[in-house]
Design brief:
This protein is an alpha/beta fold. The protein has three helices and six strands; from the N terminus they run E-E-H-E-E-H-H-E-E. The strands form two sheets. Strands 1-2-3-4 form a four-stranded parallel β-sheet. Helix 1 links the parallel strand 2 and strand 3. The chain is elongated.
Length: 133
């Protein structure tokens, strides 16, 4: 395939774990702390990956390779578009700091519930499922 050409692909899903790839998925090769996803490209292709997104290194692949400078950054925009930009329908609030986060999350959650919003809390201690008013 010539450089710069884009084949007509039908991508069915986006995944960064080669062992979870299904036929037609886009495999995102990301270098992590313990493992480098680029080492699993062949496994992903063998499992049915239709294309591979990499960090710009050249690989001789049997499927199209999409090279980007930062796969983590690219996949966030790519996944948002692929899955219909679900975050556009959400209101997201974040709290950071050293002390008082749990208290403020509890206060804001109570406020949002009383205002009729569906809430979901995420943090280092886990998640609290959606709460209906």
């Amino acid at each position: 395939m010539e450089t710069g050409s884009i084949p007509d692909l039908k991508i069915r899903g986006i995944k960064s774990r080669a062992d979870q790839i299904n036929k037609g998925d886009l495999f995102i090769a990301i270098k992590g702390m313990d493992h480098d996803g680029h080492n699993f490209i062949n496994q992903a292709i063998n499992n049915g990956a239709a294309a591979v997104l990499t960090n710009g290194r050249d690989f001789d692949l049997s499927v199209p390779q999409i090279k980007v400078l930062d796969p983590r950054l690219a996949v966030s925009a790519l996944a948002a578009e692929f899955y219909g930009n679900p975050s556009l329908d959400l209101t997201v609030a974040g709290i950071k700091g050293t002390n008082g986060k749990k208290t403020w999350v509890s206060i804001l959650t109570s406020f949002f519930i009383s205002a009729g919003f569906l809430t979901y809390q995420m943090g280092t201690l886990g998640t609290i499922a959606p709460v209906f008013s």
